Amino acid sequence: MNSYVKVAITGGPSGGKTTLIEALKKELGQRCAIVPEAASILYRGGFPRYKDPQTVVHAQKAIYATQFELEAMISYVSQKSLIVCDRGSLDSAAYWPTSLGSDFFTSMNTTKEKELARYDWVIHLDTAAADDYDSSNPIRTETYQEAWDLNDRIKNAWDGHPRRVVITHNADFLSKMTTSLAVIKAIMAHKSAEEIKKELL
């Protein structure tokens, strides 16, 4: 049995993941360990980025493998009670091209059940409303509509997790971050998904 709780923070582009994780570092400090986003590490390091479906397959294989090893390493060395992952393995399934006829889970030699079981909790942050959409991130290449389509695919990829919390874009951004932090603290207080949804959402 793990001595820590592992949370995947996921969602559509410009959902607030980066802001939330920076807030967690300040708010929780030494009480949590952060698993950085695999895609950002690869792309900022010069990994080629193309839109052709076959090249996307290669990229997602690399991202999945990097994500897997990052999580394994942080889980091994961390003495923290909370491990927060900047995205999770099933995000790659949302980016996986369907036009080639290949299946993500078969290609990765895994199943959806195995991937869901890797995380104790999942927090999905919906893509921001149009007025708040941030296109300044150099790694972000999606238009606003593409971002929302991707948001839905990511949400579908994680469907079935028993402890998933979806935080919508209906409130202003500050309220969204406040709610997200409150959810993390409730998880640390060992509240159930039902309690969190009833009290905070």
TrEMBL record:
GO terms for molecular function: GTP binding; phosphatidic acid binding; phosphatidylinositol binding. InterPro entries: NadR/Ttd14_AAA_dom, P-loop_NTPase, TRPL-trafficking_regulator. Residues 6-172 form the NadR/Ttd14 AAA domain. This is NadR/Ttd14 AAA domain-containing protein. It comes from Bdellovibrio bacteriovorus (strain ATCC 15356 / DSM 50701 / NCIMB 9529 / HD100). The lineage of its organism: Bacteria, Pseudomonadati, Bdellovibrionota, Bdellovibrionia, Bdellovibrionales.
